[in-house]
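Posting this for the archive.
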Amino acid sequence: MIEAEDKKRTTVAVLYGGQSTEHSVSCISAGAIMDHLDPEKYEVVPIGITRSGCWVPGTTETEKLRAHGESLPEVSDHEEHIHLVLGGEPGQFNYLSGPQASELFAQVDVVFPVLHGVNGEDGTVQGLLDLSGVRYVGNGVLSSAVGMDKVFTKQIAREAGLPVSPEVVLTEPRDLTSEEQDFLGLPVFVKPARGGSSIGISKVDDWAALPAAMDLAWQHDNKVLVESMVHGREVECGVLQYPEGSLLASVPALLKGTEDGDEGFYGFDAKYLDDTVTAEIPAPLDEETTAAIRRWAVKTFQALGCDGLARVDFFVTDHGPVLNEVNTLPGFTPISMFPQMFQHSGLKYGELLDILVARALTSWL
């Protein structure tokens, strides 16, 4: 059984891994978070989720949760499985199997679901946490689900008056009509509607390459988005919510070298494996554009009903910012933009985590 050694400290369960294609990214993010949770303030309870969906005792040996070259971390199965108790004390985890089956594994004050992608960042785990009555860091069911689905994100953004790119949505495999091709133009990006870390995304410069791009996207989702390419600089902005509800938009970050890798765009390898992308923080933009990005980021956060945190990504075009996507649980790896942008905004990584946990503990369930 895991218990806090000093109840003056807050007991935080860090959930990581998961069943999505971003399993390894989640592990890396969780390792960085555990490295920066002040041990004088927090008792950390690591809980891993395998790719098959089993919840198992995790590790605080964060070296095991880092990328080593092209070797990415994984949550391995374990003799002991654990589960979140529904109808018991909020934050109660019990052993599900193993020698201690049915006994208490841990009692926690707050859960930090460091889960990216499907079955983690899409509202599913958030719903489970709501049912159990435990407080947790970040967005709730609705904003998580909407933020994960790029189609609904764009629909809500349009309704709120935010600028977005043209798209065609497919709910079954088919070719684009000539009218749709004329509407979109080239290049286009073919994306699974629900996913992250650019997994399953292809850039198409010739309509002859569209079928292969479609096949790849359909492997990852049953809804596919074909978007017109927006010609502009890629800029990201973080939004953080303080315990009393006020919002802070970070200084924006300009991504450089996103098209220099083998993928030709800001894909998975460029984000996590290659050494081609750098960031300039603060982004070298004029005051008016910077203010617009920060304003649009907050407006997007509010339109989607977000809570705690989000990263809002834009393209800065000759006609102003255009919304790209929203991440309701952005990457927290050592090189991720969200913690870096807030560091340049005056908040160290540990302070950022303090605010997020405090928001979770004071927000209503």
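The chain is about 25% helix and 25% strand. The longest helix spans residues 287-303.
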